[in-house]
Amino acid sequence: MIQFRLSGRLTRRVSALVVGSMLVAAAIPGFAASVELTLDEAVAMALKNNPAIKAAEADLDKAKWTVDSTESGKEPKVTYGFTGARSKTLTTGTGNSFSNQISLSVPLTTGGDVEGRIKQATLGLKSSELELDRVKQQLKLDATSAYYSLLQGRNLVKLNQESVDQVAAHLANVQAQYAAGTVAKSDVLRTEVEKASADQNLIKAENSYELAMSNLNNVIGLPLDTKITVNEDLKYEKFDKTLEECISIALANNPQVAKADIAVDSAKQGIDIAQSGNKFKWTLGANTAWSDTDFPGVDKNTWGLNVTGSINIFDSGLTKAQVNAAKNDVAKSLENARSTKDSVQLEVRQAYLNMKEAEKRIDTSKVAVVKAEEDFKIAQVRYNAGVGTNLDVIDAQVALTQAKTNYVQALYDYNTSRAKLDKAMGVAVK
Fold first, then answer.
1. Angle, helix 390-425 to helix 243-253, in steps of 10 degrees
2. Among positive and negative, which fits the CA dihedral 142, 144, 147, 151?
3. Is the pLDDT assigned to residue 16 strictly greater than 70?
4. Cβ neighbours, 10 Å, residue 95
5. pLDDT tens track for 282-313
């Protein structure tokens, strides 16, 4: 067998080409797209197409421009002005006047006002970057959960179809024995009722599968009627970290925790900004001007330099009030940060414990499936031999279907809880 190994960069390019082809095909009017998706491809499409990621990227771009605009407060400003006038006086009569002026203003110190606002804007940029990370992690969770729901739905359709086939086969056997006069009519009727119930469960499972597919399409940005084929299956992979390790990782990496800490730092900068109200502010100024009675007025030249300093001597308590308000913002942000850290720890704990619970259910339900299959076979043999009852077969078949359903549910719960745990820990999305 000849094998080819692609580099990481080439693999990403191939994946992007595949995803792009899917989107082009799905966009063709009247074309009912049918695509095969792996979990990684579903996540990649969600990160590329979902409106939430585009909104977060727009906010990040805005934050970058906010930093630029705030930093301009410390940069020199140059202005140009032109004046053209015609006037009449008693001494000079009617005449024209034209003037041109260029002014330079350089802030020397701002009392910490502009500096504080620049730091706040920089912190805001970092917060926007963290928010983009959070949105990516949430979208990965949404896409993963939707993908696993589709896998679960497919498995439930399959096992409910097996249930229908098993009941149908048993019904045919009962009808044959009834025709031979070896069983009562009640056995036929009871089995027909069970067959109708199995049919209804299959219909519900198929509907749930279609809804899961639509939900996945919505998350990854495909038309809702796109038919998705998944070649993967729900599987169990052991998780080897302790709860304490997960909490430690979450407190260090979860974007919500980092954003809360940034909010505290930003609020502290607000105190410096407020205190600048009673500090000296110095500005260097320079200007040069030309004036003339003929357009464009560039004959007579004057120039000047100046240094201006100002401080509020009395502002009716405005600065004091602003400082106290800023201190309250700090106190509030500290409480919010504490609350956020508590919430993240709770989120980690819930996801971890749910994952561990599902892990135990995987083992027990897997054993239950084996025993239920054996019990169903024994019930069939006993019924065919005339020593068992029809109800024994039906009960065994129902128990088998329930055992398989429990196993599928346990696998689904384990994988989705693990995905939630990754999100709570702030696992980076590449």
1. 40
2. negative
3. no
4. 11
5. 999 999 998 888 888 777 888 889 999 888 88
Q: Within 13 Å and on the Cβ side, how many CA atoms surround 86? A: 2
Domain 16-75+110-279+317-425 superfamily per CATH? Outer membrane efflux proteins (OEP) (1.20.1600.10)
Q: How far is CA 114 from CA 208, 270, 273, 277, 351, in A?
A: 57, 11, 8, 12, 44
Mean pLDDT on 178-202 = 94
Identify the residue whose tokens are 């709770």. 346
| % the chain with pLDDT above 70 | 92
- Can you give the residue ranges of every domain in the chain? 16-75+110-279+317-425
Query: Rounded distance, CA 110 to CA 172, Å?
Result: 92
